[in-house]
């Protein structure tokens, strides 16, 4: 799927376009390095290597499961600059559960493609609902966008917070509030 040669040619054009010499010692290998980096950080454009959010057979639970402060990074599709931060994922199983590492793995997969934070938040919540079929789920993502920190408005440290709530988290303010209190505990 990835075309390293095309990426290398494009990076070389960018180097020339900014007025640099692509044959300068420090830049000669840059197109290749960027092509290899893109192959890694955009791995979410390829089908997943293994099934996402595979449920654990024979295990059941029916109370809230919450993972907080899951670090992630992605690339903003508007400027191709990184955005990064932490995600918080809560779900209330309707019997079926997944291994705890499955949730960050799904986040990483969806984040490894040109993205916008709002879509990433929604995609993760929708994937949880589709695969686990919980009573409800909530995804909250807090991220800093370098396209806002280092260019344009130039406001480093600003966090963008997005949320997606499904099922009981949308219907019950008490359940939603419990999850938010757990997410914000000790902040």
Automatic annotation (TrEMBL):
Its EC number is 3.5.4.16. GO terms for molecular function: GTP binding; GTP cyclohydrolase I activity; zinc ion binding. Gene3D superfamilies: 1.10.286.10, 3.30.1130.10. This is GTP cyclohydrolase 1. Keywords: GTP-binding, Hydrolase, Metal-binding, Nucleotide-binding, One-carbon metabolism, Zinc. The keyword Nucleotide-binding applies. Homopolymer. One of its GO terms (cellular component) is cytoplasm. Pathway: Cofactor biosynthesis; 7,8-dihydroneopterin triphosphate biosynthesis; 7,8-dihydroneopterin triphosphate from GTP: step 1/1. InterPro entries: GTP-CH-I_C/QueF, GTP-CH-I_N, GTP_CycHdrlase_I, GTP_CycHdrlase_I_CS, GTP_CycHdrlase_I_dom. GO terms for biological process: one-carbon metabolic process; tetrahydrobiopterin biosynthetic process; tetrahydrofolate biosynthetic process. The lineage of its organism: Bacteria, Pseudomonadati, Nitrospirota, Thermodesulfovibrionia, Thermodesulfovibrionales. The keyword Hydrolase applies. It catalyses: GTP + H2O = 7,8-dihydroneopterin 3'-triphosphate + formate + H(+). It comes from Thermodesulfovibrio aggregans. Zn(2+) binds at residues 76, 79, 147. Belongs to the GTP cyclohydrolase I family. Coiled coil: none annotated.
């Amino acid at each position: 799927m990835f075309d390293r040669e095309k990426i290398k040619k494009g990076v070389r054009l960018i180097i020339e376009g900014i007025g640099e010499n692509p044959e300068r010692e420090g830049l000669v290998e840059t197109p290749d390095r960027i092509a290899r980096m893109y192959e890694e950080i955009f791995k979410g454009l390829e089908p997943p290597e293994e099934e996402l959010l595979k449920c654990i057979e024979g295990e059941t639970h029916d109370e809230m499961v919450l993972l907080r402060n899951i670090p992630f990074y992605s690339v903003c599709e508007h400027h191709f600059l990184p955005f990064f931060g932490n995600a918080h994922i809560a779900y209330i199983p309707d019997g079926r559960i997944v291994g705890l590492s499955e949730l960050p793995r799904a986040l990483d997969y969806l984040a490894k493609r040109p993205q916008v934070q709002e879509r990433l938040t929604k995609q993760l919540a929708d994937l949880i609902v589709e695969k686990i079929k919980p009573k409800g789920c909530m995804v909250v993502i807090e991220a800093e966008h370098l396209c806002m920190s280092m260019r344009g408005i130039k406001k480093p440290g600003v966090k963008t917070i997005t949320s997606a709530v499904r099922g009981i988290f949308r219907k019950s303010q008490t359940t939603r509030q419990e999850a938010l209190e757990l997410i914000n505990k000790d902040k």
